[in-house]
Amino acid sequence: MTSEPKADLHRYLTVAREALLWKLDGLSDYDIRRPMTSTGTNLLGLVKHVAGCEIAYFGASFARPYPTTYPWLADDAPPNADMWATATESRAHITTLYRDVWAHSDHTIETHPLEARAVVPHWPADRAETTLHRLLIHMIAETHRHAGHADILRETLDGAAGHRESADNMPEGDAAWWAKYRSELERVAREAGGTEV
Description:
Blueprint: H1 5-22, H2 29-33, H3 43-58, H4 91-111, E1 117-119, E2 129-131, H5 132-158, H6 175-192
Antiparallel strand pairs: 1-2
Helix pairs in contact: 1-5, 3-4, 3-5
């Protein structure tokens, strides 16, 4: 079996994108916006952030800017403006933006060889010059990292877990099995931590 490196990288990026969006399915507008950590991490904000990353890495870095500009991506935007959606930025708006950004990014990926040169404007000058290959790896890592955040947020919100709808990648087990499993982990943690009662 042969492998085509650019197609492989593109596929891993696509899988990460789809996993991130899937974590929004079935949740209320409140739950997708709720700050779930002390730093405000929230599901819809993760999608907005990753869309902004793709705008930069597969758009501006290849001198093909995304056709719309957003104040939350401006150099003078408030800190973390890309990490949450305003009340007027609906779920549909953010998810449609993300899918439109995919199409823009995919055009860059499909029409450039892996060794194509790029310049990332917001990276330090000594490493701003890079390649499509490196940016694909960077964006795969970025998207999977945030999909992992989304996994934890979603499980915390309603117990839903797994990689994607068609293959959740979780062991089979009912609620009783998972409760017993978690109880065993708690017992081991207490034993290892010297807090066994």
